[in-house]
Backbone:
């Protein structure tokens, strides 16, 4: 595979792995510091703020695509000027969206807390104050989201990832420190607002370093039309994704209550955090596909796409096995027995749902990079509409476990439909090639390991030591299978030549 692409992919992954581990490791301390009910309120506030992000018209997607294209060939007329116009148009849009969303959150806080959701009376005052403070965080979060995308569009995921790693690690640790000092929910959100402001300042300084010729230019009609035209359909994807990601929590908060929401949030967040890490490996394909499409190198794009899909599917399937098979033990030792009993099924089913969803990540990125966001946007909208209906029915009938099963049903049906629709049309690869070269090498081998691990987990339940040994054995089997049957020969040869080169260099020294 292209080494630059691989380096950017792993930089992007590393920027998420360490913060994810720190965040997951601090969840039990945060839940203990806030209490189950207050943590449920915290989850509710986060969901409300996240849901307000549906007003984001996703100019970020168009900005990444066009900056990548303009930067790919600096000999193009007015390339720097078009980059300037693109950056400042994006900043203007996200500043406006931040103000609109922030005002809506601030003035709607009392209604949300007291009339829409089931918040205990004793927590209502703090919840209202916290949601009003989160309105400022929303404004800063919109700016941060856009600024983060600019280094990525220049294929400098190393810089974006270092910044993300720094703040993603410090904020959870400082959150625990705030709670240990005796403060509560309001102070936790205040900390995050301050961190977002500092993050924006750091990102802007880095952007000025990457684009030293960047100057303010009033966006012309051409840039506005191209960006908004591309982003109009990308907005559907973002709108649908955010709606789907946060609406389940709002439904549970309204129908079940904040304690049940806490159980669901912990389990679903864990599944999402772990299974979405490999999306960071895939994310670099959007600017890469935009660049290759602009150069007309479609054969190269096809080869990279099929090979990347092969590896990403195997990694996600392996992670799914570990999370789903050991879901009870993960929650038992990570949280406590009560969370394990309440969230075991939710964690296992949500992990499977996240895996099914991950099959659409690379096709969506390539589809959008080829300039066809209409397909991914319409399917994302259909998935959100159908998914929310099924999730609502699931929650109404079976509580938080019903929500998880609703997610899985929607994932299976809409993912299959999307894969059939885009391959051979907007993605330069046939579906049978994808299944044969990318999916098949992982399905049977990983499935056999999963079955063996499940049986062993039922038979050998003698405590933490047995669990550790069984997990290590499962990981070893997955690694061996991947090394033998998934990694392609040319990549094995390349990796081995690198190792030999490194060893020979050390001997010379």
Residues:
């Amino acid at each position: 595979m292209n080494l630059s692409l691989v380096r950017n992919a792993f930089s992007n992954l590393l920027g998420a792995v360490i913060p994810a581990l720190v965040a997951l490791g601090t969840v039990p301390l945060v839940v203990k510091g806030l209490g189950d009910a207050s943590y449920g309120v915290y989850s509710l506030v986060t969901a409300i703020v996240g849901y307000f992000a549906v007003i984001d018209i996703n100019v970020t997607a168009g900005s990444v695509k066009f900056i990548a294209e303009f930067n790919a060939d600096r000999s193009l007329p007015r390339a720097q000027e078009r980059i300037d116009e693109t950056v400042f148009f994006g900043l203007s849009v996200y500043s406006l969206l931040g103000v609109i969303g922030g005002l809506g959150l601030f003035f709607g806080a009392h209604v949300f807390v007291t009339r829409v959701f089931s918040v205990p009376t004793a927590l209502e005052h703090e919840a209202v104050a916290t949601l009003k403070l989160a309105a400022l965080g929303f404004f800063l979060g919109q700016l941060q989201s856009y600024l983060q995308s600019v280094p990525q569009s220049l294929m400098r995921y190393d810089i974006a990832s270092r910044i993300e790693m720094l703040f993603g690690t410090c904020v959870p640790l400082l959150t625990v420190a705030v709670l240990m000092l005796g403060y509560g929910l309001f102070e936790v959100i205040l900390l995050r607002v301050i961190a977002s402001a500092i993050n924006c300042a750091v990102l802007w300084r880095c952007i000025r370093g990457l684009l030293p010729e960047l100057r303010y230019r009033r966006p012309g009609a051409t840039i506005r039309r191209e960006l908004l035209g591309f982003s109009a359909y990308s907005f559907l994807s973002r709108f649908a994704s955010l709606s789907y990601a946060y609406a389940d929590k709002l439904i549970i908060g309204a129908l079940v209550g904040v304690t049940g929401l806490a159980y669901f949030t912990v389990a679903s967040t864990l599944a999402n955090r772990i299974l979405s890490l490999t999306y960071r490996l895939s994310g670099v394909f959007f600017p890469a596909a935009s660049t290759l499409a602009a150069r007309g190198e479609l054969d190269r794009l096809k080869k990279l796409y099929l090979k990347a899909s092969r590896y990403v599917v195997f990694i996600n399937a392996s992670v799914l096995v570990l999370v789903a098979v050991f879901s009870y033990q993960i929650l038992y030792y990570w949280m406590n027995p009560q969370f394990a009993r309440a969230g075991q099924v939710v964690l296992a089913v949500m992990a499977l749902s996240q895996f099914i969803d991950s099959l659409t990540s690379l096709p969506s990125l390539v589809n959008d990079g080829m300039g066809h966001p209409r397909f991914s946007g319409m399917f994302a909208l259909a998935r959100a509409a159908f998914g929310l209906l099924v999730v609502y029915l699931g929650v109404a009938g079976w509580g938080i476990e019903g929500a998880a099963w609703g997610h899985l049903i929607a994932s299976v049906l809409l993912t299959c439909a999307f894969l059939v629709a885009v391959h051979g049309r907007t993605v330069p690869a046939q579906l049978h090639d994808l299944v044969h070269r990318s999916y098949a090498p992982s399905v049977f081998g990983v499935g056999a390991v999963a079955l063996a691990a499940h049986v062993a987990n039922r038979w050998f339940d003698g405590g933490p030591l047995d669990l550790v040994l069984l997990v290590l054995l499962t990981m070893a089997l997955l690694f061996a299978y991947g090394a033998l049957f998934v990694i392609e020969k040319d990549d094995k040869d390349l990796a081995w030549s690198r190792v030999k080169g490194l060893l020979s260099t050390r001997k010379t020294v």
